[in-house]
Design goal:
single chain; alpha/beta; Rossmann fold; 2 domains; 4 strands; 46% helix; Sirohydrochlorin ferrochelatase
């Protein structure tokens, strides 16, 4: 069973996936270091998936905006823009804010299709991610590991 993620990737690849632009959007923060983590994630995503047109965006509080990222995808040749919220669960931002911002961004680009995907949600791989993070932090607390990539230099890994 490939689940929804496997089916979506196959569909993207089978429907001109190289012409898809992907906007990965988080909430946005006043803290630059929080915003830079999305940039790092986008680079990881590009390396792992091979997608060429991938842009980071922040829903609010920081740049680039969804509109900026959407525009950049179109400049790079996207015929469809997939706006993917980097959120765990659905809520007001996913239900209303992000779709409204994506619609506003698309208005400048007639003929460019777009869609807003579901948030990460209850995906089984998230169990593995959480378990891995907890095991590492416990190892650090017990003196068996260095600070994790999230806590390095903050003194928070104890």
């Amino acid at each position: 069973n490939q689940g929804f993620a496997g089916a979506a990737v196959q569909q993207m690849a089978g429907s001109g996936g190289s012409r898809d632009g992907i906007v990965i959007v988080d909430h946005g923060s006043r803290r630059a270091e929080s915003n830079s983590m999305l940039e790092e994630f986008v680079e990881m995503y590009k390396r792992k998936t091979g997608h060429e047109i991938v842009q980071a965006a922040h829903m609010e509080l920081a740049a680039p905006s969804i509109e900026d990222a959407f525009d950049r995808c179109v400049e790079l040749g996207a015929q469809r823009v997939i706006v993917s919220p980097y959120f765990l669960f659905p809520g007001r931002h996913w239900n209303k804010d992000i779709p409204a911002l994506a619609a506003a961004a698309s208005a400048k680009h007639p003929g460019i299709r777009y869609l807003v995907t579901a948030p990460i949600g209850l995906h089984e791989l998230m169990v593995d991610v959480l378990e891995d993070r907890m095991k590492y932090c416990v190892s650090r607390a017990e003196g068996r590991a260095d600070e994790c990539d999230m806590c390095v230099g903050t003194g928070r890994c104890r």
